[in-house]
Amino acid sequence: MQMFDLTGEDDRIRFSPFCWRARTAMALKGLNCEYVPWRFTETARLEQSGQGRVPVLVDTERDRVVHDSWAIAVYLDETYPDQPVMRDDAARASARLVETWTNHVLFPPLRPLAVEPVHRLLGETDGAYFKESREAALKAPLAEVSSPDAQGKATADLARVLRTLEPTLSEHDFLGGTAPYYGDCIVFGTLMWPYIVNPGFALEGAPATGRWFERMLDVGDGGGRKALRAPA
Amino acid sequence: MQMFDLTGEDDRIRFSPFCWRARTAMALKGLNCEYVPWRFTETARLEQSGQGRVPVLVDTERDRVVHDSWAIAVYLDETYPDQPVMRDDAARASARLVETWTNHVLFPPLRPLAVEPVHRLLGETDGAYFKESREAALKAPLAEVSSPDAQGKATADLARVLRTLEPTLSEHDFLGGTAPYYGDCIVFGTLMWPYIVNPGFALEGAPATGRWFERMLDVGDGGGRKALRAPA
Question: Residue B73, class by beta-carbon neighbours within 10 Å (0-12 exposed, 13-18 middle, 19+ buried)?
């Protein structure tokens, strides 16, 4: 299998939160996959998926192309049922709740900590695309989104948001209980975004979540632990 | 079994979100329990539990007294393992996340919709206690906490917060998937608070959650459906 995986000028640095969700699911299932570097403006290379965003999984042996991190996790469980990341309907329901919470609540405070650092990792063409599209979506210059003030506020907001995870991760090793499941992949993959691009990023004020993040860096083949981070 | 259950002047109206969590768990398990009316200032009647808040479960046959809605759900599953509300470690981890989200995120917008209506249901002694303790905790007069402006803002906030449940409840009948689990009891029990005390309460802008709430009113013996609500 191959998965298109977002990168910037240095194609060893992989920072997409959605790619990390799918990569972590792949690692939990113990499946082999080649992570093919892909850049924001290379949409033509994803043509076979019928859309222009990553992750895109190409399962050459079965002649299947799947896009969207959730759809990839579901596809992997259906096609390779060993070591499921969502073993039943209850796990799918619970992971969907974690996904929605992550997208609606956890994402916003990560944005000021990641957006400008991502921009610095991009080459000229991707950088121009990223700046224009993100500034249009956020209705503010990147420098303002990631200003020191905005980063300070985001760090405080993040600590407050992470309090929702603390009781669970104080009592259990993973959001899935004794073993990680796709809900863990979703939150972990999302936190990999600032972790990879922002050398100053830390999970402050959420000690149980911090210990869980360290455990997640080592799941599967330890892909998270070995990942190259942006230089300071 | 007996459970002390919060009420006001009319002891047929039961409105505690924490008592409803435990009652719904009891109903899901198909267990019989007498719900004994208890009022805010009757702390002496809870002496055997070593604290002064409800729900308090008295399991006379086994000579056990358990307080706190979470502890009651765990006790019921351990003692009466048929039809578990949390069947394994994964379910406990997931329900704990739902509980924390409910307490931190869902509760605040419900407060303006419930606090003053609760106050109107209380007799003189309980009403004075409630007003003083809640105004001290909230640092504002009850009339301000539940002002029309505050209720309008709370209704908008609630619709935004409930968006976190919508994808899961669009795709599954319950937060537990095909069957309800303790996570469903937590959210449902909490929403019973404004539903019982505020005749104008509605789950606006969250259609899948609204349909799920109707299903939850009928679980077990349909105790939710038959519950008496405050008159308009």
Answer: buried
